[in-house]
Structures are given as structure tokens and as C-alpha cells.
Specification:
Helix content is 37%, strand content 18%. With 642 residues, the chain is an alpha+beta fold. The longest helix has 53 residues, at 47-99.
Length: 642
């Protein structure tokens, strides 16, 4: 017999039905998704462990996703380095083959000429001879000073007069030109003075004398000329290839730009070999042989220099003089805090500070001008700077004047200027002024730049250029990037560093070697017998040898420059290979960690869907029964009962 339900029994029955309905919903969710609960509250005591595991899984997944980007960048850098390696090794191979040729056979013949003092008559007094740019004059006035060769003590007409005149020349050359004297021969049997061709340059009255013979400039054969063209074409195309590889852009940023991602790091403005050789003619403007000249940017305006005086020093040399300023950029003020005591050692050609890092803002190759530095004020070229930044070693070509100590730096001023070898663009000076000049030195006070120029476009007499905002002296580094090393964190405990930039020594050496070969007049075929020029017969050999040395150092320096970073291709490729190995190892570990974490989370969150489906069916049946009982109870009233 069914009892009439009270309010309390109705509520209890409704709660039981709703409870059964919740089981239906839960088992339905489990059967459909395989997950134990749609909310963390449904996991009870394991909820905290699940949240922790999922957080760790998220971190691992983020690292793995980020590492895909890093891996792309590392692979791109490695690919570029591999392409550079192939190109530079091809160049090395051809250059080695070229150097194996008899380079003397493709340079002007310098087997020599000779002057025969074949007369014993008084025909020599008053004549001149020019050797290595110095003109010697034969005299009879008793003056044997300087470049005068006194013949007054000799006897004209004697059987040995010609020999005696030749020996007088011999004595003078031995005294005045000892460096080249070994290249001369004096044969007393034939009274013949023999010399390397072009040693005697300029005009000489003796060159028209009877018995004078000279060699002739050599003309390259078609085969030699073709080999040279192929070599220079390959050098230039390798420079273009090097530029393309270093300007690689991945994921919207330049990888060799040192943190400057929106600008190509290498500015190589030349499109053809002819354009390159027109700029670097190899005579007046040579491709810089010092690395710092390639990597320094200066922009000197008239507000710094005042009026300029352009001075012709003869040949292709000149001076640019600042009449109202200088060509210096302040670099350091010496005092007790910045440098401490400064000690000059003339024997070692070094300058030492007592403060660590005193000279860290300077670098090897800089042209350094010291002022208010006592006896050692002047212009110097930095050869190296010690690792602790306390000691500067200067190039032998710029020796210190004396030992000296300046207490607390003595308020000495350190300034830098255009490095030797820098090509300066003469912007705004007009068509009659050489558009480019090359720095060969600077005066001790920084007011004069010594340069090589195109002699056909340089004033024959001094010319003053009035200060104006329309002109400037500018040198531009081929490198437009920065110095930032990018540290990429690839896991909680590990990271890799991408610090290879296009200005690294390895690439600068490559550019320098390639530029030295690609420039004009690698073989100087000018004829000094018809032109007022001096030809260096060793030029080709020296340039090829230096280029080979630079390429070899760039490929593998063997630790010769161990104080620098990224000095050779072996180093940077090994660094990228190490990054690749580390990245692969970390990614494998992260994959395993991800798998373990995911398995742990799944074990805590997942259920057997078949079992859940069975429970769902049972819960549905139970719910149907609950609904049926609830319906019967709800339709039973007191009236029906009575």
C-alpha cells in the first residue's frame, strides 16, 4: 500500500533522483571523454598533484616550442657557415694554385739593368743618377756631402778612371742606401753597375749615356692573364657570397647582426668587379691591410676641423691639414680613477696603467693620439691590449720616445682617429678633388692626416677649403650591426649563446684577404720607362702571400689569436655544432619528460571508458526507476487514498 508522501519524503526522494542524475552526467562525461571529472574538485586529494604536473608539463611544452625557433636559427647559422667554408676553401685552393706559379714571370721583369762606366774620359762630372727616388750628382768641386759624389780626387784619363767613378758611386750607395745595397753589383772587370729594374727611377742623365741598358716590363701571356682574371673574379664573387651568407634573415631577424635585427649587418655596396676595382685601384687606394680600418666609422665635419688645407707631397701622397681644429675623437681622460699611474716603457714599447680595465674602450689597430702625456705625447698605433685592460703594446713602427711615469695619469688625454689604411670618402669637395683618399698616418697633434690620393685629382699647390656644412670626411665600416650576444634558454638549467657576428675576426680576415686579391693592379703592369712611376716587383708575391696567410688564419688559426673570440671558422663551426648537440640532447630529454608528465597526468585524470559506459547504463536504469517511483508518489493524494 502506497503511503501519501509528506513534504519531507518528497524532498528526500527528489534529492535521491537528482543524485542519481549527477551520476548519469558524470558517467556520461567519463564515457565520452575518458576523463575522470570535468572539474579539479572531482579529483579529491589528487587534484593538487594534477595541477602541479600540468604546470610542469606547460613549462616543458613552452621550452619545446621555443626550442623549435632556436633550432631553426642554429641550423640557419650552421648552414651559412658551411656555405662560407665551401666558398673560402675553393678560393684558397685556386689562390694556392696561383701562388705556385712563377709569380715573377707575371710581374714586370726585374732581372735588372746595368750602367757601364766604359769611358775613362772626364764625362761624368755634372751628371746625375736617381736610385730609389734619391738623385745623386757627380761633382768636381770637392763636396762629398749628402748625395754629392766628389770626383775631384780622381784622375780623368787614367786607365782606372771609369772604375774609380763607379766605385765612388758604390761607396755613396752603401752609405746612403744600405737597405737596398745588397741588390746592386759592381763588376770592376767590365766597369758595370748592375741593378734590379726600376731600382733606378725618375730621370737620370746617365740613362742616356752610351752603354746603358735596362730590362723591359713583362707582358703577361694570354694564359697568365686569363688565370689572373679568374682568380680576381672568384675573389669578388666570394666576397658577394660571404655577404649574402652573413646577411641571412630568419624569423624576421638578421642572425649575424649582434642584436640589431632589422638591418642587414654587412654593407657591401659593390655590384661588379669593375666597380670594386674602380674604387680600390690597388695603387692610390688599396684594400685596407689592417683589420681595424675595415671596422671603424668616422664622420668628421668642418665644425671640428675648421678650414682644411690640401697639401701636395709629391707623387700620390698628400696632407689634409685642419687649420682650426683636429681629426681626433676623445676616448679617455687619464686620472687616478680611470687609469691610475701611467708607466711608459720605451724598451718594450708599452704603456701600463694601475687600474684594471683602464684601456677597455680602446682596441688593437686604433690610431691613438696622446696629449699632455709628457715626452711621450704623440701619435701611436695600438698593437694589442692585455686581457685585464691595463697594458697597451704599440706597433714597432710607432715607438715610444722614452721611459716615463705619470702619477695618477697626469691628466693625459687619449684620443683616437682614422686607423692607418682607412679609406676616407671626400664628400662634397667637388669633382676636382680626389673622391677617396687613404690614411697612411696622422701627426702627433692630430691636426694633419697623411694620405694617398689620385694625383690627377689633387691640387698641385696647397689649396685651402673653407669650412662649410657642405663637406665632410667619412669612413664607413662594412659592419652595421651591434655587439649583443643572444642567450637562448632551452631548459630550466641550460642555455646556449649565439654570439657570432659579421664583424668577428674570422670574417674580417676573409674580407681583407679577398679584397686584397680582387682590387685593381694586383699585377702592376705600368711601365716606369714611359711613366713617372715606381713599380714594386714584389707586390704580387706579397699580396698573394698575405692573402693566403689571412685565409689560413680565418679557416683555422691554430690558437695564434687565442685572446680573441671567434677568430677562425673552425671555432665558430665547433661552437654551432656544440649548440646543435646540446639542443638535440635537451630536446630529447624534454620529450621524455613531457611523455612522463603526460602519462602521470593521464593516470590521475583518465578512466576506463568501457567501465564508465557500463556505469552509465546502470545509472540510467536507476534514474528511470527513480523517476517512476517519484511520479507514482507525486500522483498519490489523500483523496485517492480514502
Amino acid at each position: 500500500m502506497t503511503r501519501v508522501p509528506t513534504y519531507n519524503t518528497y524532498i528526500n526522494m527528489m534529492n535521491q533522483t537528482l543524485n542519481t542524475k549527477s551520476y548519469v552526467d558524470l558517467y556520461g562525461f567519463q564515457a565520452q571523454t575518458g576523463i575522470k571529472s570535468p572539474t579539479y574538485s572531482g579529483y579529491g586529494m589528487t587534484a593538487s598533484a594534477i595541477v602541479g604536473s600540468e604546470a610542469a608539463l606547460g613549462v616543458v611544452s613552452n621550452f619545446m616550442e621555443n626550442n623549435k625557433i632556436v633550432e631553426t636559427e642554429v641550423k640557419a647559422i650552421s648552414t651559412s657557415l658551411s656555405s662560407i667554408s665551401d666558398a673560402i676553401n675553393d678560393m684558397k685552393s685556386l689562390l694556392t694554385q696561383f701562388s705556385g706559379m712563377n709569380l715573377e714571370s707575371i710581374t714586370p721583369d726585374y732581372t735588372g739593368g746595368e750602367i757601364k762606366f766604359g769611358s775613362n774620359e772626364d764625362i761624368y762630372a755634372g751628371t746625375t743618377i736617381t736610385v730609389n727616388g734619391q738623385t745623386y750628382t757627380f761633382t768636381n768641386n770637392g763636396d762629398n756631402t749628402g748625395n754629392n759624389i766628389d770626383l775631384s780626387t780622381l784622375t780623368p784619363g787614367s786607365e782606372t778612371y771609369g772604375t774609380d767613378v763607379m766605385n765612388a758611386l758604390k761607396d755613396k750607395l752603401q752609405a746612403n742606401d744600405a737597405e737596398n745595397f745588397v741588390d746592386f753589383t759592381f763588376d770592376e772587370q767590365t766597369n758595370t753597375f748592375s741593378f734590379p729594374l726600376y731600382t733606378i727611377d725618375g730621370e737620370s742623365t746617365l740613362l742616356d749615356a752610351e752603354g746603358v741598358t735596362t730590362g723591359e716590363p713583362h707582358t703577361m701571356s694570354d694564359e697568365q692573364s686569363q688565370t689572373l682574371k679568374e682568380l680576381q673574379a672568384l675573389a669578388f664573387s666570394t666576397m658577394m657570397s660571404l655577404t649574402d651568407c652573413l646577411n641571412i634573415n630568419v624569423n624576421g631577424k638578421y642572425l649575424f647582426g649582434g642584436g640589431i635585427s632589422n638591418e642587414a649587418p654587412v654593407d657591401f655596396p659593390f655590384k661588379t668587379l669593375e666597380e670594386f676595382q674602380s674604387y680600390y685601384d690597388g695603387i692610390n687606394i688599396k684594400y685596407p691591410s689592417f683589420g681595424n680600418a675595415n671596422l671603424s666609422s668616422y664622420d668628421i665635419k668642418s665644425s671640428q676641423t675648421g678650414d682644411l688645407e690640401l697639401i701636395n707631397n709629391g707623387g700620390n701622397t698628400g696632407t689634409i691639414k685642419a687649420t682650426g681644429g683636429n681629426f681626433l675623437t676623445p676616448a679617455l681622460n687619464a686620472n687616478a680613477q680611470t687609469t691610475g699611474d701611467l708607466t711608459f716603457n720605451a724598451d718594450k714599447n708599452t704603456l701600463k696603467a694601475t687600474e684594471y680595465g683602464a684601456f677597455n674602450t680602446l682596441k688593437a689597430g686604433d690610431t691613438l693620439v696622446l696629449s699632455d702625456a709628457g715626452a711621450n705625447s704623440g701619435s701611436y698605433i695600438i698593437k694589442s691590449i692585455s686581457a685585464d685592460g691595463k697594458t697597451i703594446t704599440f706597433e714597432e713602427s710607432t715607438p715610444l720616445k722614452q721611459d716615463e711615469t705619470l702619477t695618477d695619469g697626469g691628466n693625459a688625454q687619449f684620443s683616437t682617429s682614422f686607423p692607418v689604411g682607412t679609406v676616407i670618402n671626400m664628400n662634397g669637395f667637388g669633382n676636382n678633388i680626389s673622391p677617396e683618399v687613404q690614411v697612411t698616418g696622422i701627426s702627433d697633434d692630430g691636426t694633419e692626416l697623411y694620405v694617398t690620393v689620385d694625383p690627377s685629382r689633387w691640387p698641385e699647390t696647397s689649396q685651402t677649403i673653407t669650412a662649410s656644412s657642405k663637406w665632410s670626411l667619412e669612413s664607413q665600416s662594412y659592419y652595421q650591426g651591434g655587439d649583443l650576444a643572444a642567450e637562448k634558454r632551452i631548459s630550466d638549467e641550460q642555455s646556449i649563446v649565439l654570439d657570432v657576428t659579421a664583424k668577428d675576426e674570422v670574417f674580417e680576415q676573409m674580407y681583407r684577404a679577398l679584397g686584397m686579391i680582387a682590387q685593381g693592379n694586383l699585377v702592376d703592369t705600368r711601365n716606369p720607362l714611359t711613366e713617372d712611376v715606381t713599380v714594386d716587383p714584389q707586390q704580387t708575391v706579397e699580396r698573394v702571400t698575405q692573402a693566403l696567410d689571412l685565409i689560413q688564419d680565418a679557416i683555422y688559426g691554430g690558437g695564434t689569436n687565442a685572446s680573441s673570440e671567434n677568430v677562425d671558422l673552425y671555432t665558430v663551426q665547433a661552437k654551432m655544432d656544440a649548440n646543435t648537440v646540446l639542443l638535440n640532447t635537451v630536446n630529447e630529454n624534454l620529450s621524455q619528460i613531457e611523455l612522463n608528465l603526460q602519462s602521470n597526468v593521464d593516470n590521475m585524470k583518465n578512466v576506463d571508458q568501457t567501465e564508465a559506459a557500463t556505469k552509465l547504463l546502470l545509472a540510467i536504469n536507476q534514474l528511470n526507476a527513480s523517476y517512476s517511483v517519484l511520479q507514482t508518489a507525486m500522483t498519490t493524494s489523500l483523496l485517492n487514498y480514502l
